[in-house]
Amino acid sequence: MLNNTKLRAAVETDYKLLANLGLKTFKQAYSGTVRSRDMNLYVKKAFSKNNILKELKDKSFTIFVALKNNKIVGYAKLLESRIPESSKNFKGIELVRLYVLKNYQRQKIGAKLLEECIKTAKKSKFKFLWLGVWEKNYNAIVFYKKLGFRLFGKCKFNFGTVIHNDLLMRKKLS
Fold first, then answer.
1. Which among 125, 56, 151 has a CA at the least distance from the CA of 97?
2. Rounded to an integer, what distance in angstroms lies between the CA atom of residue 93 and that of residue 164?
3. Residue 11, H or E segment
4. pTM beyond 0.85
5. Per-residue pLDDT tens for 113-131?
6. How far apart are CA 109 and CA 100, in angstroms?
7. Cα 115 from Cα 119, distance rounded (Å)
């Protein structure tokens, strides 16, 4: 527990809360930087309650939630996936999402969620934790660099009707 923050594994009954949290945090991070039409196309699919419920049931995903005063204020999602073809092959697990509500940022909740992801990845014998981050999400890039992630490539990311560039970053887990 950190500053009254508790972490736990997400359960199926969290699906509505996770869908709403994902939608809200995504819009907080990207509103004003991308076209609203593209934002709406993306969030409609990515944060639909059906999609979140499907991910909670899928064993290739591991999702942790952060609670403050019994309210979910952030979450992290790992996915056992392949790294993009343009990069070197390594035994890694993907950090798909790491979101914290704006009012709870700068309270080390994201770092605490990331620590839990790292523990889980190490337990499963992964050598790296990797992620893709939009090249214009400067705050996230600084956050990940501060926590030991390093650039190892780039890939394309389909966001609504626009193709964006994502930076691929990884952190060695040994």
1. 56
2. 22
3. none
4. yes
5. 999 999 999 999 999 999 9
6. 7
7. 6
Q: Kindly report the CATH number assigned to the domain that includes residue 149.
A: 3.40.630.30
Residues 6+ apart with CB under 8 A from 104: 66, 68, 73, 74
pLDDT-derived band at 57 (thresholds 50, 70, 90) equals: very high
User: Tens of pLDDT along 3-56?
Assistant: 689 999 999 999 999 999 999 999 888 888 888 888 888 888 899 999 999 999
- What average pLDDT score do residues 136-154 get? 92
Q: Rounded to an integer, what distance in angstroms lies between the CA atom of residue 26 and that of residue 77? A: 14
Number of domain units in the chain: 1
CA distances in angstroms from 163 to 25, 61, 135, listed in the order given: 21, 25, 12
According to DSSP, the β-strands at 150-159 and 92-100 are unpaired
For residue 83, the enclosing domain spans 5-172
Full 3-state SS string of 92-133: EEEEEEEEECHHHCCCCHHHHHHHHHHHHHHHCCCCEEEEEE
